[in-house]
Design a protein that fits this description.
The complex is a heterodimer of chains A (276) and B (343).
Chain A (H helix, E strand, L loop, with lengths): L8 E10 L4 E7 L12 E6 L3 E6 L3 E2 L2 E2 L3 E7 L3 H6 L7 E8 L12 E7 L3 H13 L7 E7 L8 H9 L5 E6 L9 E2 L16 E6 L2 H13 L7 E4 L15 E2 L2 E2 H4 L2 E3 H4 L7
Parallel strand pairs in A: 5-6, 9-10, 9-13, 10-11, 11-12, 13-14
Antiparallel strand pairs in A: 1-2, 1-8, 2-7, 3-4, 3-8, 14-17, 15-16
Chain B lengths: L4 E5 L3 H9 L3 E8 L2 E6 L18 H4 L3 E9 L5 E4 L7 E6 L1 H17 L4 H8 L1 E5 L25 E5 L3 E6 L2 H8 L4 E2 L2 H17 L11 H7 L5 H6 L7 H5 L6 E7 L5 E8 L20 H20 L9 H4 L7 H9 L1
Parallel strand pairs in B: 2-6, 6-7, 7-8
Antiparallel strand pairs in B: 1-9, 1-10, 2-3, 4-5, 4-12, 8-9, 11-12
Helix pairs in contact in B: 7-10
Classes of the chains: A alpha/beta (276), B alpha+beta (343).
């Protein structure tokens, strides 16, 4: 087998829009025609001379993103992301991937889907929602439950509005941990959105992405609702450095999350230390 | 000729180096002050074949501490061109002890089973390894006999016993035979073979046993001890310096970083060694850390060696070389931990 190249592909940025004071949403041309990622996969994004980091795909080509494009959300948190978020429409991002496990969606057909996102977790979860909507007929009820610290920190407001308007297709519920006057929506942690949701526990899958505390709270509730452990899908994002199962940074109890994840079912990780 | 034992008078070592130098970059153990390390050698270099152990294991040559993944250069139009470095020249490594031979086997099994990347396995395939028997334990902290490394000869092409004026050499691979044939060695004499048998028997008695169980039982023993207070007891004095990772023959984790000229026009992306004991290794997005405490980090290192690696690659990730214990500033001992969980 050949050597795996670490050389990235230059990809043209079709659009760069500020999502908040620190988040920029990118629409990027695919690096190759063969680029056909699945929800939950990630790419390595870099600027030569600055560095490289993993980013979840927030929309896939033709499913939320325009054909021939994929989407990213980049939050300014350090040196690399400071410089990445200066790249504007027409600029270039250097891309490797997609990496990560490709989860087969066939078992989800005909089932109810619950999509749960906390904070920045909506970035990867968004690809799942758009996938479900792109194949809307294959699923029964779809709930999209989104939490954020405050109304200002709710990401992808345009998408949330679009999805909320599709009342026949999807049930969107939002919550924030705290809000100033003027917020008429719900206040509470993300897991509280599961209150009152009635689904057929035998035939419902949940997809979760958010901070560790959200996983614990939501898993507790979902299991109490009677959902099967292998129907609960978590994205365990780690700071991958290579994406090809070598560098060890994403290792969880002997499992390389860049290869076996980041999307894993709770049944696959429940016995592992330091998973959630 | 495979498995046959030949004799090479010590003064013919230079001829062996000369033969190897035609096909390889040749490295051997050389004394520098108080320590011995593998350095480039010539036929007349004095080899420290009685060396104890090196600080860094041979993995430094196959998965180097700092390695260019690719270089980049910004063109006139502002776009970057990329170029991968040429592949490494084949290496000949002389005088590798059993623990480090085992380390190279683990390195191979890790790379072959975890990833499609063939860089490191290819380097190992093309390398020429001359194994060297140890007559006495090299560090107080080593426990190679317990871990099955003392008598390991794989993946050496030739394996040597130093009898003083003469080296006895066993042929283990086709390549080993080709190289040795060029020196037209005589077969070992009956007296030399008798001496080899005697010294090998004495060696087995000289090397102490520290563990009372076979390494294959480690995974289960660790599993049973995962909530043991032992982890905290050791982690309390850990400084998170990461030395244990750096000197380990089976650690493989690396960081990726860029280096560029001030104007950013040219530079390289590098992989550099890092380790699970180094602060920040388990940091993730949002400032979270999925393995935040020293107790968790220490347990993770020991579990990786004794449980995760054997479960995943079929080989225990500890060779018993003792380096991590010897170089630990606070005397944390993987040998003691193995002994304690297995007791």
């Amino acid at each position: 087998m050949p050597q795996v190249s670490m050389i990235p592909h230059p990809c043209r940025v079709a659009a760069a829009t500020a999502q908040s004071s620190r988040d920029v949403h990118y629409v990027v041309e695919v690096p190759a025609r063969s680029f056909a990622p699945e929800p939950g996969q990630f790419v390595m994004i870099s600027l030569p001379g600055i560095g490289e980091a993993p980013f979840s795909l927030t929309a896939l080509p033709g499913e939320g993103a325009p054909p021939g494009h994929f989407e990213l959300l980049i939050r300014r948190v350090g040196r690399l992301t400071n410089l990445l978020t200066r790249v504007r429409s027409g600029g270039v991002l250097y891309v490797r991937g997609p990496y990560g496990r490709r989860v087969d969606w066939e078992p989800f057909e005909g089932a109810n889907l619950i999509m749960l996102a906390g904070g920045l977790g909506l970035a990867p979860l968004r690809a799942f929602v758009w996938r479900a909507l792109a194949r809307r007929r294959e699923f029964r009820r779809i709930d999209v439950l989104v939490g954020a610290r405050s109304p200002d920190e709710l990401l992808f407001k345009g998408d949330l509005d679009t999805w909320s308007a599709r009342t026949d297709d999807v049930h969107v519920r939002l919550t924030v941990d705290a809000a100033r006057e003027g917020w008429t929506g719900r206040i509470g942690v993300t897991s509280s959105l599961l209150e009152g949701i009635k689904v057929d526990a035998h035939d419902t899958y949940a997809f979760l992405c958010g901070p560790p505390v959200m996983y614990r709270d939501c898993l507790r509730r979902l299991l109490a609702m009677g959902l099967y452990e292998n129907h609960l899908w978590l994205t365990l994002e780690r700071r991958m450095k290579c994406g090809i199962g070598l560098c060890g940074n994403c290792q969880l109890s002997g499992h390389y999350l860049c290869q076996e994840g980041p999307l894993l079912s709770y049944r696959e990780v429940r016995h592992l230390r330091e998973a959630v | 000729m495979d498995g046959e034992i030949f004799r090479l008078p010590r003064e013919r070592l230079g001829a062996l180096v000369e033969r190897l130098a035609r096909d390889y970059r040749v490295l051997g153990p050389v004394r520098r002050g108080d320590s011995v390390g593998w350095v480039d050698i010539r036929p007349d270099t004095v080899l420290a074949l009685d060396y104890r152990t090196t600080m860094l294991p041979p993995r430094q040559f196959f998965a180097p501490q700092r390695e260019v993944l690719f270089r980049f250069r910004r063109g006139a139009d502002g776009s970057f061109g990329f170029e991968e470095p040429p592949s490494q020249e084949p290496l000949a490594l002389l005088g590798v002890h059993g623990c480090d031979l085992t380390g190279l086997r683990v390195l191979r099994s890790f790379h072959e089973s975890s990833c499609r990347d063939r860089v490191v396995p290819n380097r190992l395939d093309r390398a020429f390894i001359l194994g060297l028997a140890c007559w006495t334990p090299c560090l107080d902290e080593s426990f190679c006999k317990d871990m099955g490394s003392l008598e390991n000869e794989s993946p050496a092409a030739l394996y040597a016993w130093d009898l003083g004026d003469v080296l006895l050499l066993k042929v283990l691979t086709q390549r080993g035979r080709e190289i040795l044939e060029a020196l037209a060695p005589a077969a070992a004499t009956a007296e030399e073979l008798a001496q080899l048998r005697r010294r090998t028997r004495v060696r087995h008695e000289t090397f102490p046993s520290h563990l009372r169980f076979a390494p294959e039982k480690l995974a289960a023993a660790l599993e049973a001890a995962q909530d043991d207070i032992l982890w905290e007891a050791n982690a309390e004095r850990c400084l998170s310096c990461g030395r244990c990772n750096l000197v380990c023959p089976t650690c493989t984790c690396f960081d990726v970083c860029d280096q560029a000229t001030l104007d950013g026009s040219t530079g390289a992306r590098l992989r550099t060694w890092t380790g699970c004991q180094v602060p920040g290794f388990s940091k993730i997005a949002g400032g979270h850390d999925f393995r935040p405490t020293r107790t968790q980090q220490l347990r993770y290192r020991i579990f990786r060696k004794g449980k995760y690696m054997p479960e995943r690659y079929g080989m225990v990730g500890c060779t018993g070389c003792g380096r991590c214990i010897h170089h630990c500033p606070t005397d944390i001992s993987i040998r003691d931990i193995f002994r304690q969980v297995g007791a």
